[in-house]
Structure formats: C-alpha cells, structure tokens
UniProtKB/TrEMBL annotation, chain B:
The protein's name in its UniProt record: Cellobiose transport system substrate-binding protein
Taxonomy of the source species: Bacteria, Bacillati, Actinomycetota, Actinomycetes, Kitasatosporales
PANTHER family with a match to the protein in the record: ARABINOSE-BINDING PROTEIN-RELATED, SUGAR BINDING SECRETED PROTEIN
Coiled-coil annotated residue ranges, if any: none
Gene3D superfamilies the UniProt entry points to: Periplasmic binding protein-like II (3.40.190.10)
Domain of life: Bacteria
Length: 336, 452
C-alpha cells in the first residue's frame, strides 16, 4: 500500500526526486529516465485497475451480455435447436402469443405460489432458528455448521431423496401419515400437494443459510439495547419484537430480495420432482415453474425462438418485481 | 508516504516491482482472454477425441455412444484391433440419451466436436435423417454393406427420401409380452406360453379381456399390467402409421389408430387393469421387486431391466408369449459424420460392428437383439435363454416377432407426441380423470409443444 500511494502521489508535479536537494544537480540522463519512469507509473496507476477488473468483464461479455443480446435477437425469430443458424423473422409474434399461452400463465402462477409457500415459512423458520442459536448453547459451532449442511448439498441429490420420501405408494411421508390414519396423498398428482412438496425441498435447502445471515446480524446488535429494555421490564418476547426485529430490518430486506430472486428462478427441484420423463412439471403442469417451461420449450421441444421470448418475459417480470421491491424498501426506510 | 523518504536506489527497486506485477497482470489477462477465446473457437478438436493419428503411427477411431451399447464389453474393439493392427479404437459414452442427443445435435449443427462414429437412438433417427442428413456419409455405399442384410424397416428408418442411409442398424427391440407364470396360474389362466399367446392372438382387445378375467380372479393385490404408458406404447408400435403420415404431416389427432390405442389404454386404466405408475420411475421399480403386476410389454432388453430390479426369488417365474401384434421398442444406429478425420476407416469399423456375426456376439453378452436377420440362425440367438424366464427359447420368440414388425412411418417429434399421450394423457385416467379429459389435456400439451 505504501508503495502504491507513493507512485500515485509523486508524479503530480512531474518530478520524481523530492528527496534530493536542489543544490546537487542531477545528471540529465538520469532525470529523463526518471520522468520516463514516472510517466510509466502514471499510466500504470491509471490503467492497471482496468486490467485487474477486465477478466470479469471479459467473462461477463462472453457469458452474460452476449447471450442476453443474442437471446433478444433470437426471440424475434422462429428458430429450432436442430438448425440454430436458420432463422425466420417473425417480429413480436413470440411475445404476443405469450398473452394467450395458458401454459405460460399457469407456470407464472405456479412460480408465484411456490415462491410464497417456500419463502415465507423459510424466512420465519430461519428467524426462529437464528434466535435460538443466538443464546449461549453447548457446541454452538456444531449447530451452526449443521444448519448450513443442506445448503452444501446438491439440488439434484436432495431432490432425488425427497422424491423417494414423497412417493405415493412406498414413500416414507405417506407411511408416517398412514400411521396416524391419513389416506395416502399423491404428492406428485395434485396441485397443492405437489407445490407444497416442491416448496419443502426449497425450504429445507435454504433455511439454514438465511438463519446464519440473521444470526450474524443479531450478534451485531449492541447488548446494552437489551439491557435497557430489560430494565424497562420488557419480556424476552417484547425484546425480540422491539429490539431484535427493528435492528434486523435491513438484513430482512436483503434476505427477502435474495429469496425472491431465487424463487423466480426455481428450476431443479420441480424438474427432478416430476415423475414423468419430460419437463412438464407434473401430468397437468401442476408444479411447472417459468424456468421449467423455458427449459421445456427450448431443450425438450427445441423451439429456441419461443424459449428466448419466455426468457425475456421472465426478465421483464423480474424488473417489475425489482421496482416494487425498491418502492417498498424506500417506504420502509422513510418510515424508520 | 514512508517510501518517499527512502534512498533513491531503494525507491527505484521498489518501483520495479509494480512493473513486474503489471507484467504479470497483463500476462494473466491476456492468457485468460485468449484461453477463453480459444475455448470457444476450438471445440474438442485437439484432444484424443479428435481422431488424430496417435504417435505410434496408429489411426485412432473414436466412437460417441450412449447408454450401455456393449461393444467394448463384448470384446469387439479388441477383436477389431487384432484384425487391423494399425487401428486404435476409443469410445466416449454418455450414460443417458437425454443428455447425449442434445449435445449431438449441437455438434452436428455447428459441425464441430463430432466423433468419427456417432450413435443415434431410434427415437431420434427420424429427426436426424430429416434435418442432419447432409452431415453424414452414405453408409449404403460402403463396401460390403447390403440393404437386405438388415430388417427392411430398420434400414428404412435411417434412410432419407433420396436414398442416403445415414447409419447402420445395431440392435432392435422386438416386443413380446412377458408374464408371470405363477400369477397367471393363481388367477386360473393358462401358463403355457403357446396357450397364453392364443388368449390374445392378433387383437389387443382380447388382451384387455384377458386382463378383466385376471382381475376378477386375482383381486386387488396385483395388477394385470405394469403401467398405462407401457400398454399404449405396445399398441402404438404395432401400427403402420401412428403420428405422421407418409408425406411427413402430423396426423396424430385424426389418426383413428392413435385414438383407438388411447381409448383402449384408457379403458384398461378405468377398469383398474394397469397400475398407476410411470415406467422407469423408482416407484415402478419397486412394483417389480414386490411382484405387483402380471404382464409387461417386453423387448429383449426389458428382461435385463426386470432382472436388475427383481428379488432373487423371481428368477424363472417369468415367461415370454407372443404379443397380440408385433412392434418395435428401442434400438440404435451407428453413423459416420462427414467432418471426421478418418471417414473411411470409421465406415469400415461400423460395417464390421453391425455385421451379423458381431451382432450375435453382442446379443450373447449384452442382450441387444440383432437387427440383421442372418444372425437369427446363429447358435448365440437360437440357443439363448434368460435367468428370469428359465428355459424359454427367447431367441426364437423374439426373432419371430422381429420378422413381423411392420415398416412404420416415424417422424421427428414422435417422442414428444408419445410422451404427451402418456405422461399428460393416459396416466391421468389411472388417477380418476375421464378418458375425454385426459385426451384434451394431452392434445393441448402436445399442440403447444409442437408449435414452433
């Protein structure tokens, strides 16, 4: 760091020898070399930061920006995966057809409902767990690591296990329900059981992650706030409501935003939970999400143009959600 | 700040470091960037898979395969390498065709990353023939390859309208009905394979009628058949036309044969003759282990699957009877892309691998049924038995079925249509929906999936 501030500071006046006394005349050659050097330093200081961030932007351009633009271009054409270079211009047809595409809106509704049934309980459970972990516990590190274990599991592995648990005929969950007299539930056959099952996988996987974020934020709350609340006679529950929750507000907002983005992209769980071979999300598309519908159109049915239009429609929906989020958070900030 | 007070010498040497660092950074950026571009441009051209000659002066031929095609397991590569000392064979196997095929299409459309030999599954052959034929060499022109060496319908499937044959058939899946002798006996039905075949000879309706008799006697413990999808598939595959007509038009909705097959399966579902299961799902596997059904439509490879999922005591309890009408389920082709580096050698290898003698050897080891009728008289086929079916002469039964399979019109989107009829159609009837509702859900799904 010291070297760097030196390089940045010294060339300002174009002289590179502030340590020298003016009396002793430096050799001309040496002087020139030093100006040259300093010019190099100057360039270095100005351009090397760009070089350092360049790899990311190169990668982003190749794997982020280019696909994004190309997808937009493809969405205006009729393109099949079997001949991706053979494009027929169709204008906005792929977008207008979305308006009366029942499967798209069904997928959009499913994405929303699965998002709600997975995110809300997930964050509430995470908050509860974080609150408990915040107390002095024996082997607290163990509990914290254990909370994060599902997050470190691959979606595919977890989902395949859940498919077995949720099996209609030989699943452990129906077996347990049967023991208390409930008839077997076709978890993959009907709409709500299917969506609840898919949400369960998501909740299982992400609760620990959110709990750790809450826990970190809770530990940053100054202890004296609790002390003074306790002096005022506030119970533990009151302390949680009036000290913990308000202090966590920005953290909660962060987890809500991240979970919403995650929920809008749910893909692996419903794909692998589908008992059929395709990507239709159940026999009647009961738990087909937008991500899954996009995949089905593009990779199963090989209609790249339609899939691209769906991708951009999803993008537009996400932007709308982002704006709403922004408005709400601004409101929240203003009120606090 | 501190550095400013340092002597000049130190300062200069201190200043040298950033240069080195900068050079390093630039080098890193450049190498990353070029590596990235190189990675994009050069797709699998240079590694061993590219089919270049290896150092010892041998020609390496690479094969892109899926599943367990078994050439290596049957020792065919070793044998060929012995016969042709200059040839070295390497294979690259993707386990599931669902993963193999999209990559193959990608490689074909961009004409890069292809192996010297590529396998194609029968479910995809119509699409490859229809859209990618110009990327493949014509195998019918290869020395020693004769059209009548294969079952006529197998040859047709890989041949374009202008007579270019893009791939040679490896195996086929002639379908019979595998049934449980013990369950049939318990239900008061005959268990001898001749008599069982007569119960439903020539008519799928008789098959359903047998199912009703079975259900009356067997009650609720077991089902007559494994799944609605299995039944629908068996009925459809015995038709000459199913989803496409000869001119390539989609006719699945108006073809009476398709509607009849759908209604027949729906009837079986309503009457509770088929399990409410989807084939190859874990729950379906469990019903094999628990002996929950009496019949299953059964190409030779299905016996291997049943063996894999059964408990030990099921061995020998199965038998194989002729299906009401013969159909085909499964099988593959080997094609040689034009862009390969060793086209001629690769063609020779394919012709050799698909010759009757090699197909017979493959059947013995892997259970892949030959597509070359000449192999049917070989001892490997005529003497074949299977652990699950005791002493049943399965080779003869399946050979007979293979010869009776009609030349069926297949189309590029057969798989999507059939999957819609199965997974978004008849399965719903087993879950209490009416046949009409199921048909509507299926056709709506299929039409949306076909619409470009």
């Amino acid at each position: 760091m010291a070297t760097r501030s030196d390089i940045a500071a010294s060339p300002v006046k174009g002289g590179a020898a502030p340590g020298r006394t003016p009396g002793s005349r430096p050799v001309d050659k040496d002087d020139r070399r030093r100006t040259k050097l300093s010019r190099r330093w100057q360039r270095d200081a100005r351009w090397s930061p760009y070089a350092f961030v360049a790899p990311f932007f190169l990668l982003f351009a190749a794997f982020g920006l280019f696909p994004l633009i190309y997808t937009g271009w493809a969405s205006l054409h009729q393109v099949e995966l079997t001949a991706p270079t053979d494009m027929t211009w169709v204008g906005l047809k792929n977008y207008t057809r979305i308006f009366d595409d029942d499967f798209f809106w069904n997928a959009a509704r499913n994405t929303l409902t699965i998002g709600v049934i997975s995110t809300v309980p997930q964050l509430m459970i995470a908050m509860g767990i974080a609150h408990i972990l915040n107390y002095k516990l024996r082997a607290s590190t163990f509990w914290r690591v254990a909370m994060l274990a599902p997050y470190a599991t691959s979606i595919a592995a977890a989902t395949l296990v859940f498919v077995l648990l949720f099996g209609r005929d030989y699943g452990m969950i129906n077996w347990a329900l049967g023991a208390v007299g409930v008839d077997p539930i076709g978890w993959q056959d009907d709409k709500w059981p299917g969506q609840i099952a898919v949400s369960t996988i998501i909740i299982w996987r992400w609760t620990g992650y959110n709990a750790l974020i809450y826990l970190a934020a809770m530990q940053a709350i100054p202890q004296d706030l609790y002390e003074s609340a306790a002096l005022d006679g506030a119970s533990r529950w009151r302390q949680f409501l009036h000290v913990t929750l308000p202090s966590l507000r920005p953290t909660i907002l962060f987890t809500v935003v991240v979970s919403t983005i995650g929920a809008s992209q749910v893909f692996g769980e419903p794909l692998l939970f589908d008992p059929n071979k395709g990507a239709s999300g159940g026999a009647e598309h009961q738990f087909q999400t937008l991500g899954l519908y996009l995949y089905e159109q593009g990779w199963v049915n090989q209609h790249l143009g339609r899939a691209s239009a769906i991708a951009w429609a999803m993008f537009a929906i996400l932007i709308v959600i982002g704006i709403i989020n922004q408005l709400i958070s601004r409101r929240l900030r203003a009120s606090s | 700040m501190r550095a400013r007070t340092l002597p000049l010498t130190r300062q200069r040497s201190g200043g040298g470091k950033p240069f080195a660092r900068k050079a390093l950074a630039v080098a890193a950026v450049v190498s990353l960037g070029t590596g990235l571009l190189a990675g994009c441009a050069d797709d699998g051209g240079d590694d061993s898979s590219g089919g270049s000659s290896s150092g010892e002066g041998k020609t390496t031929i690479t094969l892109g395969l899926f599943g367990t095609m078994g050439f290596k397991e049957a020792g065919l590569y070793a044998e060929y390498e012995k016969l042709n000392p200059d040839i070295k064979i390497e294979e690259n196997v993707v386990e599931r065709n669902e993963n193999y095929y999209p990559a193959l299409v990608n490689h074909l459309t961009t004409n890069s990353g292809l192996m010297d030999v590529q396998a194609v599954e029968v479910a995809n052959i119509a699409e490859v023939v229809g859209t990618q034929a110009d990327k493949f060499t014509d195998m019918s022109k290869v020395e020693g390859v004769k059209k009548d060496g294969w079952l006529p319908w197998k040859w047709e499937q890989a041949t374009t309208k202008d007579g270019q044959t893009i791939g040679l058939g490896t195996d086929v899946g002639p379908m019979a009905i595998c049934y449980r002798k013990d369950l049939f006996e318990k239900a008061g039905l005959p268990s001898d394979r001749e008599q069982v075949g007569k119960l439903w000879a020539g008519d799928w309706n008789k098959f359903i009628a047998t199912g009703e008799k079975y259900k009356k006697a067997a009650g609720k413990d077991t089902f007559f058949m494994d799944s609605p999808g299995g039944l629908l598939n068996a009925v459809l595959s015995s038709e000459k036309e199913k989803f496409y007509d000869a001119s390539g038009q989609v006719i699945y909705k108006t073809n009476p044969a398709v509607k009849a097959a759908f209604d027949l399966t729906a009837e079986a579902a309503e009457k509770g003759l088929v399990q409410s299961q989807t084939q190859f799902q874990p729950a379906w596997d469990t019903t094999i282990a628990n002996s929950k059904f009496a019949t299953v439509a059964c190409p030779p490879w299905m016996l291997g699957y049943i063996k894999g999922k059964s408990k030990a005591d099921a061995a020998g309890k199965w038998d194989v009877a002729v299906a009401p009408k013969s159909g085909n389920w499964g099988g593959s082709f080997l094609g040689v892309p034009k862009s390969g580096k060793n086209v001629e050698e690769a063609q020779k290898l394919v012709a050799w691998l698909t010759a009757p003698e090699q197909q017979a050897k493959l059947f013995k080891v892997q259970g892949s049924f030959p597509s070359a009728p000449a192999a049917y008289s070989s001892p490997e086929v005529t003497g074949a038995t299977n652990e699950m079916t005791g002493d049943a002469p399965i080779g003869e039964i399946f050979s007979e079925a293979a010869k009776q399979i009609p030349v069926q019109v297949i189309g590029p989107k057969d798989q999507i249509i059939q999957q819609g009829l199965t997974d978004n159609g008849v399965i719903l009837v087993t879950k209490g929906k009416s046949a009409k509702e199921a048909w509507e859900t299926a056709t709506k799904t299929i039409d949306n999936n076909l619409d470009q």
